[in-house]
Amino acid sequence: MQKKNENPISAEPSVEDIEQMDYYDFMGYMEVPFFMVGGLESSERLAQLCDIKPNMRVLFIGCGTGESALNYVRKFDVNVAGIDIAEKMIEEANKRVHQEGLENKAEFKAGDAYDLDFPDKSFDIVISEFVSQFLDCSRAFPEFHRVLKPNGRLGINEMFKLDDIPPDAEKTVNEAEQIFRELTNLPFTLYSLEKWKQYFTDNGFIDLQSEEQLEIGSAISSREMIHDMGGWKGIFKMLGKMIKLMLKSKKIRKKFGMISKAKRRLISNRTTKKYVGYLLLSGRRK
Ligand SMILES: C[S@@+](CC[C@H](N)C(=O)[O-])C[C@H]1O[C@@H](n2cnc3c(N)ncnc32)[C@H](O)[C@@H]1O
């Protein structure tokens, strides 16, 4: 029998197996703690926009490796559930639950945002961080609404582009969208603020509260980032894993190359960064 706080043993996959992984299973294997560019600070700010209170039930859609959900447990004393389509992500999330002994506060399982395996009106808050931008929101938002209790809040932490983006910047954004679509096989799209809000109002959400951050590259300090990634030890662990894989596999080198190409176009490009940012938006279920 497995003892508490002991890592579940899983066989190390071969380089060929890793090359074959879907993008987010690969990211799960890399143990990336979270993806939102605003870091855990933006996630905590979103919780406040959702009027979070102790003992609430919070559902994380596309929870990844679970770090931001577990951060809600630590910071706000809530109960969390998380679903993700990538099984490797869920495996890593459950490892974290186990390591922190939070089995009575957190539950992660594989699942699909379009078909949530939860009863109607079962959560106080539903959170989507860097997930809805990869989804067909006209299919996903009705599901988010269904599982929320009346007066419950949906909160999203997603990227957006300004409506008045000039054509050359828009072209660069489109290139980045295309790269992420190719990498993930998902319909990654940067919506405008108005479009995101329209998804809320069209799906029965009212009392919208929002905050936006442009120039993402400067939104998060390197100190916060190092802290959020588990300190220097966490950063070196991930870099070591990355370098080892890149040395062994051309396919994986290509994958990392595409990721940095897309990120440069969205985050550090001098023209696009003035028009691209992340949005924290919350709305109440009527
Ligand atoms: C960019 S990551 C964000 C992970 C996490 N929310 C975070 O901010 O760190 C997007 C996640 O959405 C998941 N995902 C994509 N499509 C999904 C779907 N239809 N249902 C559930 N999860 C999905 C991916 O597997 C991935 O873990």
Strand content: 15-25%
Number of domains: 1
Bound molecules: S-adenosylmethionine
Could you give the count of β-strands?
A: 7
Which parts are unreliable, with pLDDT below 50 for 5 consecutive residues or more? 1-9
The CATH architecture can be named as 3-Layer(aba) Sandwich
Mean pLDDT: 92
Q: Main sheet?
A: 7 strands, mixed
The CATH C-level name is: Alpha Beta
Q: By CATH's scheme, which homologous superfamily applies? A: Vaccinia Virus protein VP39
The level of helicity is 40-55%
Structural class: alpha/beta
Q: Specify the number of helices.
A: 11
What does this structure look like?
With 286 residues, the protein is α/β, with parallel strands linked by helices. The chain has one domain: Rossmann fold (3-Layer(aba) Sandwich). The protein has helices at 15-20, 23-29, 39-49, 67-76, 87-100, 137-147, 167-184, 193-202, 222-228, 231-248, 250-268, and strands at residues 57-61, 79-84, 106-110, 123-129, 148-161, 205-214, 276-285. A seven-stranded mixed beta sheet has the order 3-2-1-4-5-7-6. Strand 1 (57-61), helix 4 (67-76) and strand 2 form a beta-alpha-beta unit. The radius of gyration is 19 Å and the shape is globular. The protein binds S-adenosylmethionine.
Describe the protein's topology.
Layout: H1 15-20, H2 23-29, H3 39-49, E1 57-61, H4 67-76, E2 79-84, H5 87-100, E3 106-110, E4 123-129, H6 137-147, E5 148-161, H7 167-184, H8 193-202, E6 205-214, H9 222-228, H10 231-248, H11 250-268, E7 276-285
Parallel strand pairs: 1-2, 1-4, 2-3, 4-5
Antiparallel strand pairs: 5-7, 6-7
The structure holds S-adenosylmethionine (SAM).
